[in-house]
Fold:
Amino acid sequence: MTTLPPVSARRRTTDRAMRGVLLALTLAALVPLVLIVYYLVKEGIGAWSSDFFTTDPTGRFLGDPGGIKSAIFGTIYMVTLASVIAIPLGIGVALYLVEYGKNGRFANTVRYFVDVMTGVPSIVFGLFVYIVLVVAKVGGTFAAWKGAVALALLMLPVVTRASEVVLNLVPDSLREGALALGAPRWRVVLRIVLPTALPGLVTGSLLAVARAAGETAPLLFTAAFVLGTQFSPSERMNSLPLQIFNDVGQAQDRLVERAWGAALTLVLLILLLTLLARLVQRRSRLT
Amino acid sequence: MTPDDPTSPTTERRPTTELIPTPHADATSAGPAPAQNQAAGHGMTLRDVHAFYGETHAVKGVNLDYAANQVTAMIGPSGCGKSTLVRCINRMHEEIPGARATGAVKLDDLDLYAPSVDVVAVRRAIGMVFQKPNPFPTMSIADNVAAGLRLAGVRGVNLKERVEQSLRGAGLWDEVKDRLGAAGISLSGGQQQRLCIARTIAVEPEVILMDEPCSALDPIATLRIEDLIHELKQRYTIVIVTHNMQQAARVADTTAFMLHGEMVEHGATEKIFSNPDDSRTEEYVTGKFG
Amino acid sequence: MATGQGRAHFQDELRRLEEAALGGIDIVLEQLDRVLEALQHVDVELAQIVIHDDDRVDGRYLEVHQGVLSLLALQAPVAGDLRLVAALLHIIKHVERMGDQCVNIAKLIPLSGYEPPVRPEIMQRITRMGAAARSEVVQARRAFADRDVELAEDLARQDREINVLNREVFRLAIEAGDDPDTREWAMHMTMVARALERVGDNAVDIGEQCVFVVSGLFREFQNGGTRPTAVS
Structure:
């Protein structure tokens, strides 16, 4: 009869110790996250009311401070505009890198620069747009569209990287099969590669959108701050991060509370986008 | 044979110049498209074909003929260049960065490597079935079969009819006729491969290349596809790359043996497997290679 | 890449099968020697042993036959291996036939009487035929074992001699004389001669198989040499 050596007691303890340490680290990492959520909800839920969402901030320190309608609208408006710029551009660059450039010197250089851009601090994007568009007075000074441009610059490398990863996951056998049927390469990309990668591309884009929605620095010197809701892209526009930024430093409690309420709204908005990205990813056949 | 003589009683096959338009083709030469049954097929001729991956010389001066409506098997040990050679036939080899091929590959009398020839048209005339079945994952069964026509931008074809015709030709119609809308990837491995074959024949090529089509399949699915090949050769010229010598023996009329990028011997399958001329061929088919 | 090493198990099996078939020829040689001696000395007991030992030849036939089927089913031999397997099947059949001819001769011995009225000229030729047949069998075995095509083709020449002797025995038997005993003995001798001639033919057939294995061509060795009749 064959016998196998029994598990040594020492190995069991090591196993358990390892599990314990990793568990402890995980819990430690969770603590600030849980605290953030807790404080957000605790401090911010009080500010929520129907007025909160339907009235603009009044700018008054005493009396009715108003809601954050313009901020919500501004964030949605500018992020949408930024997405319209950044997402097609980003996917386009990724398509070039994966389908045409491949490992060529130019493509590798582009990849390197995109990598660098993902690490650039968001305030640098804001500063860049400030100098190039605002100070130079291209179509006025502060404007919503300039804020959107700054956000787009921020989103571009994120969309490109994520899309490149997803496009690389499309098996080469599909491209080969389509080419062997006698399809020109552009049709292969359009009819086979893109549809197969679509869920992954959408996920990547949504995550980039979520990131842009929460950025403050790029908007500080580009779209700047204004109280009222207005629809013109060439005028200043409010946004949630800026609203929070302004309110948090005030002496009045109600304004600070409004800041918490706005923060909670922003986090919820980002949470919704992330959930949507998750749902779309489940339908993907690649990941 | 003259490509532009619709009254010739013996001509039932489509002229090569109609398949692969070249600037020299007479504009009035395309007569009415002949009916489905093409009694005479198209043969191919390879002369002094070399293929390179960058500096690596993978195929060294191959001369070979593929007779019309026959099955030719390409055998040889791994790395002998048989897959590379076959990919030079439908010009897929050049899709690999740094790869190139020289020599003459002729479909009937037309040199496919002539500068005026459109690569895309070549691939429509010469279909390919791959080792691992690769149905398009986002498409249904019917859409997969029609994919070739759609990708090629072919108009004026009744897609539904063509899809049914092709699925019948691939021996898959009875199994999927009630679920044409189901995802292509929901089929079993053998069915997926037959789906890929249907997709290939839907564009009505003249030659079908098969690169180890049964390696990823179980023995029963393999035998079904071999039976299919026997039927298909009535309408197409078929080249099959295979590792499995018994398969080559069962399926092919002609067998070609390659070694280190060179064509060592080619001839009737029966001869290659009963009394080959070259001792290297004898060693390979009897399994005495190491 | 090393050549010749592949399928070691199969090559072993093939070698053993060939040895079994050639061993069959050795058994037949033993039988032939015994029966020729029995014929010389009218040894009825030795003749009985030969008849009995034919079981060994038949047994060897079945063994090789089974071995061939097994190799075909399990190893799917092709090219040279396939020709060898097919040739072994033919050879063992010829071996079995030769064994039967020896038995035929052995059965004729008691019938030729205890004091046969021997006609020396007939007996002489029979003896020479026996030696020639034996030598053909030995040569056929060596030709196949060594894959020696020239040696195999030479068998046709040797066989011509046996055929000549056979016709002479027949002619002499007709002129055997008036004595009925003598005439009966002479008839039996023609049958012995015929059996020996058949042994020679079978040996030539084994030579043809040798040529087939080496060249892949099947040529019948006609009595005038190696004229190709059928090509495969």
About this structure: The radius of gyration of chain A is 24 Å. The mean pLDDT of chain A is 89.
